[in-house]
UniProtKB/TrEMBL annotation:
Organism lineage string: Archaea, Thermoproteota, Thermoprotei, Thermoproteales, Thermoproteaceae
Signal peptide: none
Stated name of the protein: Ribonuclease
Primary location class: cytoplasm
Enzyme Commission identifier(s): 3.1.26.4
Length: 207
């Protein structure tokens, strides 16, 4: 997978954390941000990789192993109305900084690698470092770092479980993204509870 070993073997970095999110762009459901702190080799040994490269079943299996071997795992669920509050002001990156800062306080590490939502990762990393007082390395394609890959799996599994619970109540509304006609149809027909919808997305994509 091409993990950047030079980033992981510096002797002064004794504890490494990784941060990633799932659900930044859907019309339905929350944004989930996760942090994982642990040993790179151990995490690689249980099969961590970018969550998008794993089947749902494989993600669940690796998720369970990450919970067993990581030094710290935590996540935060950001509900749609909170996402709306930030995006209505064009502050989606600021949302991730605010909630990631809260999350990092729960899992101590010497440095955190973060999958950057900003096209300029150094800008995002500097802002998050300023907000937390912690050493942050923001990267594009951050899942190359095992801790970030593990966090991507945690965030994805948690969000998928929440979406599955919603589907059990209202039916299969598809992917939850505004590009999915099935999702759009369910939303237009009022079949998805209002509190589960990002209304700012409805306006943006004219749903």
């Amino acid at each position: 997978m091409g993990f950047p070993q030079d980033l992981l073997s510096r002797p002064y970095l004794t504890v490494i954390g990784g941060v990633d999110e799932a659900g930044r762009g859907p019309l339905v459901g929350p944004l989930v941000i996760a942090v994982v702190v642990g040993d790179s080799d151990v995490l690689l040994g249980v099969g961590v990789r970018d969550s998008k490269a794993l089947s749902p079943g494989a993600r669940e299996r690796v998720f369970a192993r990450v919970l067993e071997v990581a030094e710290c795992v935590n996540y935060i669920v950001v509900e749609p109305h909170i996402v709306d509050m930030y995006t209505s002001k064009g502050l989606l990156n600021a949302l991730e900084i605010d909630y990631t800062a809260k999350l990092l306080a729960t899992c101590p590490a010497d440095v955190y690698y973060v999958d950057s939502p900003d096209v300029k990762p150094e800008r995002y990393g500097s802002a998050l470092s300023m907000a937390t007082g912690k050493r942050i390395v923001a990267l594009n394609k951050g899942e190359r770092v095992p801790q970030v890959a593990a966090a991507s799996i945690v965030a994805k599994v948690v969000r998928d479980r929440l979406i599955d619970l919603l589907k059990r109540e209202v039916g299969d509304f598809g992917s939850g993204y505004p590009s999915d006609p099935r999702t759009v149809e369910f939303v237009k027909r009022g079949l998805v509870p209002s509190e589960c919808i990002r209304h700012s997305w409805k306006v943006r994509f004219k749903v």
